[in-house]
Amino acid sequence: MTLLIKSIDDLARQKFDVLVPTMGALHAGHQSLIKLARQRSDRVLVSIFINPLQFENKDDLAKYPKTLEADLKLAEAAGATAVFVPSYEDIYPGEINRIEAGEIGDLYEGASRDGHFSGVLTVVKRLFDLTKPKIAIFCEKDFQQLFLIKQMVKELNIPIEIVAAPIIREIDGLAMSSRNVRLDIAGRKSALIISQALKENTIEDMHAVLATEPAFTLDYLEIIDEDTFLPASENSKNKRAIIAGWVNGVRLLDNRRMGAAL
Questions:
Q1: 131-to-137, 149, 160 alpha-carbon distances in Å
Q2: How many C-alpha atoms does 169 have within 13 Å on its Cβ side?
Q3: Is 157 a residue whose pLDDT tops 80?
Q4: Could you give the 3-state DSSP secondary structure of residue 172?
Q5: Among residues 61, 125, 65, 117, which one has the least CA distance to residue 92?
Q6: What's the pLDDT score for residue 71?
Q7: Rounded distance, CA 34 to CA 43, Å?
Q8: Beta bridge partners of 234
Q9: What is the pTM of this model?
Q10: How far is CA 260 from the centre of its chain?
């Protein structure tokens, strides 16, 4: 049975090799991260903490699904050794030492979500300090977040290996996300335009596909250099298309390495 850890004191009595940080509302995508973690170690900790610092919109924070009982079952089924569910006071016991995301943190997702990546890095660093894993696993779906976490680990000399896990998709191609449950039937169908656009090989063709779905509002679409997260050039070795927008008020994002199958 998966161990439920609710306090820092209980956490201190345990040792885990791999951390899978989450905000709960677990789905098959999260389970894939846990299964990947189990390939690295049989001491896998899943954390569940809805971090208010990374929500620029209070309504989004209030609407974020809270499904702890179901989350525990999904985590156990995927092979988690324990689930850590800290309180706000555990994560932020006093003055918050915010970690700034820098110039890259102000681009794309950061441009639309003020302070979002600072909030992400702050909570991830705190979780690293508390759990002291050797490895932490994050999904490529939030690719800018993954880039910034890797950058933070390097700049702060944190002795943790960051492992990138592939995006898990629904049968129809939609990237799995906790936000998907907020889409109605029509919105769910409209959201498929994102993955359809990513199948194209030029940014112009991607824009053309997106323009065919009136229910989708584009925030950004760019082909970036994976090594710098700046717009790709002819000399970029690894290019990735990143996209974000809204369907009926629900924010969705996705990405694909150029040349890779979707």
A1: 13, 16, 11
A2: 17
A3: yes
A4: coil
A5: 125
A6: 97
A7: 11
A8: none
A9: 0.96
A10: 20
Encoded tokens for 251? 């924010």
Identify the sign of the CA torsion 182, 186, 189, 194.
negative
The band of 116, judged by pLDDT with boundaries at 50, 70 and 90, is: very high
Whether the pLDDT of residue 262 is over 90: the answer is no
| Catalytically annotated residues | 30
Query: Which strands sit side by side in the sheet containing 44-48, from one edge to the other?
Result: 3-5, 82-84, 44-48, 18-22, 135-139, 161-165
Kindly list the distances between the CA atom of residue 187 and the CA atoms of 33, 74, 184, 192, 206, in Å, as whole numbers in the listed order. 27, 26, 5, 9, 20
Condensed to tens digits (0 to 9), the pLDDT of residues 228-243 reads 999 999 999 999 999 9
Query: Using CA atoms, how far apart are residues 206 and 221, in angstroms rounded to an integer?
Result: 8
| 1 pLDDT above the threshold of 80 | no
CB 210 within 8 A of CB 190: no
pLDDT of 63 strictly over 90: no
| Position 214, amino acid | P
